[in-house]
Design brief:
Elements (H helix, E strand, L loop, with lengths): L24 E4 L24 E6 H17 L4 E6 L8 H13 L10 E4 L1 H13 L7 E4 L2 H7 L7 E3 L2 E5 L7 E4 L9 H18 L1 H16 L14 H18 L18 H7 L6 H18 L5 H14 L11 H14 L6 E6 L2 E5 L9 H16 L17
Parallel strand pairs: 1-8, 2-3, 2-4, 4-5, 5-8
Antiparallel strand pairs: 6-7, 9-10
């Protein structure tokens, strides 16, 4: 038998309210590993660093730039210790994060004055960021993203995370570093596939809010990939699509996160491309890169919009063709499996407090939200039709040849 709560038993009650101002900067520089460039050695919020800092390197990055990184700190007389980690989502784990925490403890990292430096791709940034957010209940750190994905997407994010029990970023924190340093020249060393993957996130940003960015991707897709966004040979008055893509993608992401950094509002247009892809990406590891799965999700979501008549067939065709011009596959067998797509949506809804909050395109660069609670949400029948369409794309010979001209397909 339960009794109603007697308010007379409550003698005191305190309500705490506090506000913490958060500022962090994203710095674009050239030749970040040049010992004459001070940016890499600066300590956020302090004039100098008297202790030892941990520098965490992605294994691949260490092989390419490790000697330059070590020369930089040696020539600038900065005391550092090094830790090298394996990249890739299959290594985005609690164990990797704890390795970072262990090294922070071993070298005696201070609460503020000796922030670690993370040099590598998005996986490494998330792992180091999460370790920093937990160590001593939170220490500052510095990001140096070396992939296009890390530079145009992760560089702005306040989130850290590791994969857990087969789920992408299931464990994580909000912990933006005081400084992120971007050097577009680092992208020049990337394999083309990683460049294409990064452009998958740029495609997302173009579709949700920047029609001009979409036009740049549409016109210059193959050149952007082949040239690694370096704008080689461009004169002072020539178009610089690589620079424009980086600037527009970062600006767009910053605008969206600025107004909702802690995700108090679960309606986020930047989640476009991330509704159905997480489950596909994790189950396909290591087959798919993150940006590849995002691009497929962008196409799948565009198909849903076209099926409703919100997006014209011509616009859908432009989206599919531009995705291919970048060199990204537009579909995958799991996107053609309606049951997997329904399972993916159900899992994502739990992340959105049991709401769909699905972003659909009304135009290239313009969106609206749909949700099952107000009866505008996506139905099982719509997912069935979109999955059949994705199956058509798999069977379409043009899907295996990015950029090949094709006839618009009809959405059922």
């Amino acid at each position: 038998m339960t009794r109603a709560r007697d308010s007379k038993t409550v003698h005191n009650r305190w309500t705490m309210s506090a506000t913490k101002k958060v500022e962090y900067e994203i710095v674009v520089t050239d030749d970040v590993f040049d010992p004459a460039n001070p940016e890499l050695g600066l300590v956020p919020g302090a004039e100098r660093c008297d202790g030892t800092r941990l520098v965490v390197l992605d294994e691949t990055v260490d092989g390419i730039f490790g000697h330059r990184v070590r020369s930089y700190f040696a020539e600038n007389d900065v005391q550092v210790e090094y830790l090298t980690l394996r990249g890739g989502d299959q290594h985005k784990s609690i164990d990797q994060m704890l390795r970072v925490a262990t090294r922070l403890s071993e070298i005696g990292t201070a609460r503020v004055g000796t922030p670690p430096v993370a040099i590598g791709g998005g996986v490494l940034q998330d792992v180091v960021g999460m370790a920093a957010s937990l160590y001593r209940r939170g220490i500052p750190y510095v990001r140096v993203p070396t992939t296009l994905l890390g530079q145009i997407d992760g560089s702005v994010s306040a989130k850290t995370g590791v994969n857990y029990e087969g789920c992408r970023n299931r464990l994580g924190t909000f912990a933006p570093p005081p400084r992120t340093i971007i050097d577009r020249g680092l992208i020049a060393t990337l394999p083309e596939r990683q460049v294409r993957s990064g452009l998958g996130e740029a495609l997302k940003m173009a579709l949700i809010k920047d029609a001009r960015l979409f036009e740049v991707l549409e016109e210059h897709g193959p050149r952007l990939v082949a040239d690694r966004l370096q704008d080689s040979g461009a004169g002072p008055d020539d178009p610089k699509p690589g620079l424009e893509v980086v600037r527009r993608a970062i600006t767009g992401m910053a605008e969206e996160l600025q107004r909702n950094l802690w995700e108090a509002d679960l309606k986020r247009i930047v989640d476009y491309g991330h509704t159905f892809s997480p489950i596909v990406e994790m189950r396909a590891l290591p087959e798919l890169h993150h940006g590849e799965a995002v691009a497929m999700d962008c196409v799948f979501s565009a198909v849903l919009a076209a099926d409703r008549g919100m997006l014209s067939r011509e616009q859908l065709t432009r989206i599919i063709d531009t995705t291919r011009r970048i060199g990204l596959a537009v579909s995958h067998p799991m996107f053609a499996d309606a049951d997997v797509m329904k399972e993916a949506l159900a899992d994502t809804m739990r992340h959105r407090d049991n709401h769909q909050y699905i972003t659909l395109l009304t135009d290239i660069g313009s969106t609206t939200f749909v949700d099952d609670e107000d009866l505008t949400g996506i139905t099982g029948d719509e997912i069935d039709r979109a999955a059949r369409f994705m199956g058509e794309l798999l069977r379409d010979p043009a899907s295996r040849h990015p950029g090949r001209a094709r006839t618009p397909l009809t959405v059922a």
